[in-house]
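pipeline stage [seq->struct] | target=DEAD-box ATP-dependent RNA helicase CshA | organism=Caulifigura coniformis | residues=398
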Amino acid sequence: MGLSARMLKALEGVNYVTPSPIQAAFIPIALTGQDCIGQARTGTGKTCAFVIPLLEQIDHSRPAVQALVLCPTRELAEQVAVEARRLASEHLCEPALLVGGKPVGKQIRDLDRSPAIVVGTPGRVIDLLQRGNLNLKELRIAVLDEADRMLDIGFRPAIEKILRQCPTDRQTLLLSATLPPPVERLAQKFMKSPEMVDLSGDSISGDLVQQYYCTVDREKKFGLLVKLLLAERPHQCIVFTRTKRKADELYRRLKRRLPEVAAIHGDLQQSERDRVMKRLRSGELRLLIATDVVGRGIDISSISHIINYDVPESCDDYVHRVGRTGRISSERNGRAFTFVTKEEGEELTRIEIRINKMLDEWRPPNDAFFTPRETRYVEAETPAPARNDEDFADFFVA
């Protein structure tokens, strides 16, 4: 792709050999300075697709902010900054991370050293612009990462305010798994004849993910969750709920039996969210209960299962949830399960239309409750003691 010797050495250092389809298509266009929109499902390598052109085009000898990456969540911004540091190993480039929930003093000090790349969330970026600590007058490239999610959670006014303070002759790159009308309007307003790279295809939710639906009565969801965990024995699993209250409720019911479970949502302090994410990345956590607010910030290749405890509010949310597993950096295919009540049949149909794929139904196998720990009852020809669904949760860690 005509990359510099320094970049090739950095890529070799992190064992990146063959570009993913979105990288192979997006990088050559971005390297020309042309505005570009990249659409591809979550987990296909979009971060490298824009980080590599940033590092190749900025002047590493000039002390000024030349590239700005906007992300919807603190977790995602942190992951982008980490990836940028890895790929900048041959440039000695240290990106600044500007996110809420972290001490602003340190971020101001980071800006005082005039970093070439800034990665942040719109709220904190606006704050530091207004304080006068962030100067975008010499910006060359602006990146909108997960643009659809940023608009979903109400960042459009902040994004527009930031882009208006950027030089008009900048390059703008927009990456997204979906391109709903609000994102298209944003692109029309702030991008110059952008070239489109659309690799979403018909299988937007990914060929690497086996997807199922589970019919269930609302009051029996928790029992089905336990049966599913017992039957699947996931390596690492994220359970998505619509509300923070439901996430906390599930966490309270499971933590009594499972030492490797945690919950994460927007009401948690940033220090606690950081602690949960660290435990997830290290493999200490096996089960995470999450809301969509932070779901986009979870980019862990070891996630083997996704469970939609609640049907997502939109079809695009389904695409992003399922994209947490079956990632190109994973050695295993992912599995996704969506709990559907009889009142939610139309919502399931809309999801199937969106991804152009019929989901198979999953039912608990007949032996879902026979675990090694229970076998002794069978061998002794003694009836196993009666247990309710919650009692089976402790077998998940067996």
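stage status: PASS
auto-comment: The first strand starts at residue 36 and ends at 39. DSSP finds 16 helices and 14 strands in the chain.
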